[in-house]
Amino acid sequence: MDDKQEAHRPRYEVETYCFSNHDDNSRFAVRRNGVLFHIRVSPSQFVNSPATTQEYLSYLEVLRSGEEVIGDIFDTDVYDWVTRPFEQLFVELAPPPVLPEGRADITITLKDHLYPPFFVFDLCAVDEQLQPHRIETDFSPYFPPRVWLDDDYLDEVEKWTTFYDPADVVLRFGNPEDALFKPPRKVLVNDGKTACFFKPCYSTVQTKNELEAYRKIASSKLDPQLRICRLFGLVTDDNGAVLGLLLTYIDHNGGSLASSVDPHYPSPSTKKGWVDELEAAVAELHRAGIVWGDVKAQNVLVDREDHVWITDFGGGYTEGWVERERAGTVEGDLAGLARLREFVFQDASQDRWWTR
């Protein structure tokens, strides 16, 4: 396909994929214009197609490895192989939305994103030709991320924070069209007056750990200007499940401290400022009886004004940053801070333990 043809391919995003450890089946979720396509792939659906079967198995090996490339096969090659046979169907079944009269763009809510219209397909092959086969069903194979907390616990949480319906949470992107394709990050609540970061909930234990830390932060006398992540509210569904947390939105360039430092960048004075801010913030947390927990460079964001923010109070530990037996303690935080200082002031000749 030449560059001109490539430029005219429809836009869509491969959102998630999964594979079985017991057989060679896999599934892909692809989003276009707010519609979710579930694509199932199984060699059992390949008829008289040994070359296609072998090609698929080589692609599956890349996915299972977790690597971006094995040999000359990239993970993007896998996505392309799976989705190309569906491109005309993407166009037909997920056309651009019709804009309300007088509106330049459409409002997409978190409910729209988490509970989208959907289609289910099998990717089949007959005589080495890939063919989509639609599965008629009223039941989506997709479930949004969520955790279940008992009613008494939620009653206590509701005393100090706000619960939001996903229909009242609006997705916000620099390019409004991206809301139809990409997972939400920045969202608006309170009639658009408050910008938050939406963090989906996957683990009951982690969610409870975070809520306890944010409860302590909310009830403490910490300086409101302290650059730490805070909780604005919970997003819950009609059944009482917690879908996600609404946290401080930090305007940054998309990178954490982990991707903002190397031996030659930024300047020594900027690095010193970052370390000083982190140490001061952690000291304030400890004085309030709050432990950061999972101290690591990936949990520090650098905003557009070159200040650092502490994020992620879900507990746990990361090997190389905090030892398991010290996780969740003041001593663990201090040990992690020492590692952060070493990371920020890394020398080009040092052994990079944090890349292992």
How would you briefly describe this protein structure?
The chain has 356 residues and is an alpha+beta fold. The protein contains nine helices and 16 strands.
Report on the structure:
With 356 residues, the chain is an alpha+beta fold. It folds into 3 domains: 3-135, no CATH class; 151-248, Phosphorylase Kinase, domain 1 (2-Layer Sandwich); 252-355, Transferase(Phosphotransferase), domain 1, CATH 1.10.510. The chain is 28% helix and 25% strand. The protein has 9 helices and 16 strands. It has helices spanning 3-7, 50-65, 75-83, 87-93, 110-114, 151-157, 204-219, 268-287, 330-344; strands spanning 13-19, 26-32, 35-47, 69-70, 73-74, 118-126, 129-135, 162-164, 170-171, 186-189, 194-200, 231-236, 242-248, 252-256, 300-303, 308-310. The strands form 4 sheets. Strands 8-12-13-11-10-9 form a 6-stranded mixed β-sheet, covered by helices on one side. It has a 5-stranded mixed β-sheet with strand order 1-2-3-6-7. Strands 14-15-16 form a 3-stranded antiparallel β-sheet. A hairpin with a 6-residue loop joins strand 1 (13-19) and strand 2. Helix 8 (268-287) runs antiparallel to helix 9 (330-344). It is globular.
Highlighted features:
6-stranded mixed β-sheet, 5-stranded mixed β-sheet, Transferase(Phosphotransferase), domain 1, Phosphorylase Kinase, domain 1, alpha+beta
